Amino acid sequence: VRLAFQLLSGRRQCYIEGREYGEQMITLIKKINPTSIHDLPKLLDAQVQAQPDNHMLFDKAEAIKSLCLGCSNTSDLITLIDTLFTKKPDAIVLSSVHKSKGLEWNRVFVLGWHSLMPHPKSKEDDQQELNLKYVACTRARSELFFIEPLEKTRD
């Protein structure tokens, strides 16, 4: 979601595959019903702490907190999420491996092959995570790239 926000900020058309993921994020925001957008990160953290084994909740909460930074109120946040998850022709498609099942593109970039796969909260030898790596590798029709994030350095 951060990458999509950066692309959109740079006037690059993109969307995130998986409309229902955006709808689930919006539902979560409405369920929490913060009085202010500034309260939302703390309220999301409380939800995650109440369900520490819920990986999807953790991922959604982190994505929402990232998007909060560019919004002045929850209405703006919901509009932004709706925009990010609406398909646009000739745009960069961002997708989780889960959402890419059954889809193919000419050029695929797999981000975080070593650092994000398997999911940081999963077991290292989880067969489902290995299957996801296979899915990631088979989405490209002609070009497949593996990209790792640059390590952050302290000044």
What is the averaged pLDDT score?
83
Shape designation: globular
Order of helices and strands: HEHHHHEHEHE
In the sheet with the most strands, the strands line up as 1-2
Count of alpha/pi helices: 7
Could you give the distance between the termini? 27 Å
Radius of gyration: 16 Å
Which spans of ≥5 residues are poorly predicted at pLDDT below 50? Answer: none
Helical residues, percent: 40-55%
Main sheet characteristics: 2 strands, parallel
Q: Indicate the proportion of strand residues.
A: 5-15%
Structural class: alpha/beta
Number of strands: 4
Description:
It contains seven helices and four strands. The chain is α/β, with parallel strands linked by helices and 155 residues long. The strands form two sheets. It has a two-stranded parallel sheet with strand order 1-2. It has a two-stranded parallel ribbon with strand order 3-4. Strand 3, helix 7 (127-137) and strand 4 form a beta-alpha-beta unit. Helix 2 (19-32) runs antiparallel to helix 5 (74-84) and helix 3 runs antiparallel to helix 4 (55-68). The model has no long low-confidence stretch (mean pLDDT 83).
